[in-house]
Amino acid sequence: MSCYFLETTAFVRLFVQETGTDELIRLMSNTDDNGKLISAAAPLEVYAALRRRERAGDIPAQQANEALDILRLEAARMVQQPLNPAVLEAARQLIDRQPNLRTSEALQLAAALAARDMFNGMEITFVSTDAKLLAAAESEGFPTLNPAK
């Protein structure tokens, strides 16, 4: 079974057409729900991103609301890694090891590390469009995928 951890910059592409959206949709269509992993914070981050785009006039309100409805359904089908004390500690350690990471990036990568531990060594591909975060994930031993390339 293939497992993919979708960091927020990738996850949002399932709901708004951007470079990499079509590739990501194909990938997720061919992946079992229990192989689709996200941080428990990712749905809220995507929600905020969609509302920001709506307020900025980048997407109409109806499109934003439709995307938010799909977000609720898709997020419920995915395995969500909670932001528990172990993930918060892992994020703190990542900030020490990866000095270029911001808090939100460290939390995403820490959630992926916890998911990898939970899946007991199963290979999980870290999916993001953020080059800095992909480099950090690679240094933490993840295979990576940038759907926008």
Describe the structure.
The protein is of the alpha/beta class. The chain has one domain: 5'-nuclease (Rossmann fold, 3-Layer(aba) Sandwich). Helix content is 55%, strand content 11%. A five-stranded parallel β-sheet has the order 3-2-1-4-5, with helices on both faces. The longest helix has 17 residues, at 61-77. The protein is globular and about 40 Å long. The mean pLDDT is 96.
Report the CATH superfamily.
Answer: 5'-nuclease
Report helical residue fraction: 55-70%
Number of E strands: 5
How big a fraction of the residues is strand?
5-15%
CATH fold descriptor: Rossmann fold
Strand order of the largest sheet: 3-2-1-4-5
Order of helices and strands: EHHEHHEHHEHE
Give a topology summary:
Layout (H helix, E strand, L loop, with lengths): L2 E4 L1 H4 L9 H9 L6 E4 L2 H14 L5 H17 L1 E3 L3 H13 L5 H16 L5 E4 L3 H9 L4 E2 L4
Parallel strand pairs: 1-2, 1-4, 2-3, 4-5
Helix pairs in contact: 3-4, 5-6
Briefly, what is this?
By secondary structure, the protein is α/β, with parallel strands linked by helices. Helix content is 55%, strand content 11%.
Keyphrases for this structure?
149 residues, alpha/beta, Rossmann fold, five-stranded parallel beta sheet, 7 helices, 5 strands, globular
